[in-house]
Design goal:
541 residues; alpha/beta; Glycerol-3-phosphate (1)-acyltransferase; 3 domains; 8-stranded mixed beta sheet; 3-stranded antiparallel beta sheet; 20 helices; 17 strands; 11% strand
């Protein structure tokens, strides 16, 4: 982001959030008292762990002192300062010079960035360093995305599988010849100094999920909206956090996605020459997931109620990150980045020229959707309905462009057999005990995988899902490859072959990988649904 735009955005952020707050019933003193309460509680729990602990403590101590006896005008100025404090923390530090250096050195620089291991270990491997250039497959509506980038502002909305997602998506955009998009990244991802430097300078702005202050949340949302109004393309993860269960997200958090509609309305008010906001779903599909063990454990512990913050997982451990990247290359595994057809801020289809289309394919003037007697304006209930429709279109695209891999088919075949042979057990009990049999006949696993593969290929022809290259017409090859993947990377394999038997050695991992096929009505092949319809909890039985 250009420095002059950053300054304009922070100035506008300060004024907009404060004006919005002053227009509500609660007095500004209550707004600041709420901020003090939430921030002091957070800082007490933090106990000096965060780098900004002293700065934040000093700032809120000053606010508390100045708030005593402050006039209405002074309270407003204090609120502006609080918003500015949050805004400066949130704002990214994109530097085009850093971007040019990194992209010229790609893919080796990205390999180094993702590996983040000790110089001694890297030196031992020279010149053979892991690279993900060949491992990332970019496909789908790439050409439409390129064209829409020239017609308006793009909001890329990917599935969220791993903490690698933003880096993978950013690299995919570079491969498509597009400039970097802005994106919000959890503050916990900035703990590694090297990774933090690159993320800050490659478009990331910080999102501190530990901050519960409503004023901070207002500032975060307004910052994202203002960047769109200034023409900066964004990446929003509508799932809100990584999918703990491993399934495609079906219940989305559309607060940030709704920023696109509000930015469009503000663009119309300002008579911008390119007011349109285009929402582009993007499905990220991994054969192996770096943090799979931690994510599924977190999902099961909370019985589907995610904690939203995991401070210590595989992503923060350089050795696990290095091992994952190495195995990704050595196994010839692929990460598929699938770009879907775009929709506008109301959920309408969009053609390659950026024209919105109704269900019959006729062009529509979307500016009329937001007109009131006073011109373009926000109307809360109406806009929520538009945003809900956008969310439905996003989920449809996620399911349609999900790429199934050998690990998903293998896990589904094994786990569905466990469910089928233990019909009186619910999902959790099957995971805990494994049921009556310690292992399964390999021939049975092959048969189940074959039936599943046949169904998936049919669905692929109907454009209901995508089948990756690791899924073969011959299920024996698919299962063999799936078991190989499980055995090489994870500390404890999800399943392993022992002669003509298959041993489900980590049933939680089997659940995680098989969950990628939840939501497609495959229950008739055996077993039963493992997740609730919204994919946020275990099935009732």
């Amino acid at each position: 982001m250009r420095a002059e735009d950053q300054t304009k955005i922070l100035d506008a952020l300060e004024q907009r959030v404060t004006a919005t707050r002053s227009g509500r019933a609660a007095p500004m003193s209550e707004v600041l008292e709420d901020s003090l309460y939430f921030e002091r509680r957070r800082l007490k729990e933090d106990r000096g762990k965060s780098p900004a602990f002293k700065k934040d403590t000093a700032f809120w101590d000053r606010v508390a002192n100045e708030l005593r006896g402050a006039s209405d005008a002074q309270q407003r100025r204090l609120t502006e300062r609080a918003v500015r404090h949050y805004g400066e923390e949130i704002a990214g530090n994109f530097d085009d010079r850093v971007y040019q250096v990194v992209t010229r050195a790609m893919p080796p620089a990205l390999g180094l960035l993702l590996n983040a291991v000790s110089p001694i270990k890297l030196a031992k491997r020279l010149p053979d360093l892991p690279s993900i250039d060949d491992a990332i497959v970019v496909q789908g509506e790439v050409e439409q995305l390129r064209k829409l980038h020239e017609k308006g502002t793009v909001v890329l909305v990917p599935t969220h599988v791993s903490n690698l997602d933003s880096i993978v998506a950013g690299y995919a955009l570079y491969r498509m010849g597009l400039p970097p998009f802005l994106y919000g990244a959890g503050l916990n991802l900035f703990t590694n100094p090297l990774l933090s430097f690159f993320m800050h300078n490659l478009g990331a702005y910080t999102v501190d999920r530990k901050k519960q202050d409503p004023l901070y949340k207002d500032a975060l949302k307004a910052y994202a909206q203002l960047t769109l109004e200034h023409g900066y393309d964004n990446i929003f993860f509508p799932g809100g956090t990584r999918s703990r269960s491993g399934a495609i997200e079906k219940r989305l958090k559309l607060g940030l996605a709704g920023c696109g509609l509000q930015a469009y309305i503000e663009n119309l008010k300002a008579n911008k020459s390119r007011p349109d906001i285009f929402v582009v779903p993007c499905t990220l599909s991994f054969e192996l997931v770096l943090e799979a063990e931690t994510l599924i454990d977190d999902f099961l512990k909370e019985v589907g109620k995610a904690r939203y913050i995991i401070d210590d997982d595989e992503f923060t451990k350089p050795s696990r990150l290095y091992e994952f990247m190495t195995q990704l290359v050595n196994l010839d595994s692929k990460i598929h980045v699938t770009i879907s057809r775009a929709v506008d801020a109301f959920g309408n289809d969009v053609d390659d020229e950026g024209v919105s289309l109704d269900p019959c394919g006729r062009s529509v003037d979307t500016s009329r959707y937001v007109l009131t007697r006073d011109g373009p304006a926000s109307v809360a209930d109406r806009d929520q309905e538009y945003t809900r429709e956008v969310g439905e279109r996003i989920v449809e695209a996620f399911l349609r462009d999900n790429v199934v891999e050998c690990t998903h088919v293998t896990a589904y075949a094994i786990f569905s057999l466990l469910r089928e042979r233990n019909p009186r057990m619910n999902v959790l009990r099957v995971i805990r005990t494994g049921g009556e049999d310690e292992d399964l006949a390999l021939a049975d696993v092959y048969r189940r995988a074959q039936a599943l593969s046949d169904k998936l290929f049919t669905m692929s022809e109907e454009r209901r899902i995508r089948v990756g290259p690791s899924v073969k017409r011959n299920a024996e090859d698919t299962v063999s490859d799936g078991l190989k993947h499980f055995s090489i990377y994870h500390t404890r394999p999800a399943a392993k072959r022992r002669g003509d038997r298959v041993v489900p050695s980590d049933r939680t991992l089997l659940l995680y990988y098989q969950n990628r096929l939840e939501g497609y009505g495959l229950d008739a092949l055996g077993g039963a649904a493992s997740l609730s319809p919204d994919h946020r909890a275990l099935a009732a039985r």
